[in-house]
Amino acid sequence: MILPSKPQSAPPFEAKTESTSRGCALRRLAGLCAMAFLMVAAGAVAQVVTVDTHTGVVTNGATATGTVDRRYEQIKPTHVPIANSELDAKTRLELIRLLQSEQGFAMRPFPRGHKGLTLQANGKMEPAGEPYLDMVVAQGISAKPGDRLVLTDIKFDRAKIVFDLNGGPDRKHRFLRHIQIGVGPNMNPVTQGDDTEPMGARLTLAFAGHVPELTGAEVKALLAPLISFDAKTPIQAFTDTLPTKLKDAILNHHVMVGMSTDMVLFAKGQPEHKTREMDGQMPFEEWIYGRPPQEVDFVRINGNRVIRVEVAKMGEAPVISTNDEVEGMMRTDGTPLVADGAPGTRTVQEGDAERNPDTQAPAAPPSLRDPGEKLPTDSQSVGVMRPVQFPKKKPAPQPGANPDGEPEAQPAAGPDATDPDAAKPAPAPGAGKPN
After folding, report:
1. Of the four listed, 13, 161, 269, 276, which is most buried by Cβ atoms within 10 Å?
2. Is residue 372, in this structure, part of any structural domain at all?
3. Long-range contacts: 389-393, Cβ < 8 Å, 24+?
4. Are 123 and 219 in the same domain?
5. Does 44 map to a domain?
6. Is pTM, for the whole model, over 0.85?
């Protein structure tokens, strides 16, 4: 007969160990939260925050709710006629032969990562907008607009064609690296190698139901919103991704405030001289183009953006530009983030933002009041507190100063002060007698 076993309770030390491990996990989580808070707080330095008083939308100088860089906006769908018949094996081999190692130019930023971008045939791109930007920030960028792309691998899957660009985003033998063969301590991985981190990207062309009969030209036309296969120079491929006004400025070798360093290099080439200086606490580079008596351009760059352009000509006053002209053109709506002095908006500076003493009032002194809080002294019915005044001290009374008062006190009777012998003490009895 089999008797049911009694449930055994865990030893006391096990419960203590579990509680200790939970405490360690909570401490680690608290530390990670603190580090994340510090990183977010550090990013808030020297920013300008704009609050819309009507809608409550908060905008932080570089990013805005519902408005992103035009390079990450949704594409315009293509209109390529597609057959209804399914792709056969012969046409598949022809497509691989035509498209393998084909070169093109990136029209949008291509992120790294295993998933990559997905383009619906004659449809939209996924992701787009802020998710697209988040993917680029999280995974890193593989190719910028205007960079050359090479179709290094093509795979067909039911209703998809997967293109690996510039070597693809995955390592070679990605799964075999985790498999080891051997006995005991002599375990060796199936595939060994210390190849570098892959820097390629992936693009998936998706269809409805199945991959239809296609030609190489039709595939290139479907990929045109993201990859251009036309024969172009690098500057043509780059400027085709920009707004018309900005494209014309680069082709005419004109530098505008707000351009990136790549735009300046495409517009003017490498500078003849570079200097590094400090403006207060802000480091910057001065790129100098030209020599007198020709026109000389001084392009001031902070980080990756142009913040000041000075054009000097012989016999003329220098022309200085500091207003950002590019930010509005690179937005999805084509307008600046918030117009200066727009009604219903309030701009708040925080962190290390510098104030202009000519146009801005000095900062208010720190206060312990809550926003909108009033003290009793702010009311008109309550007087203003004044310094405490102590009563003045009265002078000491002088003898005879008040003849109507009590008579003056008489000195006590005693020896005459004029007699020198009266002040001497009397000798003790027998003090002067001989022994």
Report:
1. 161
2. no
3. none
4. yes
5. no
6. no
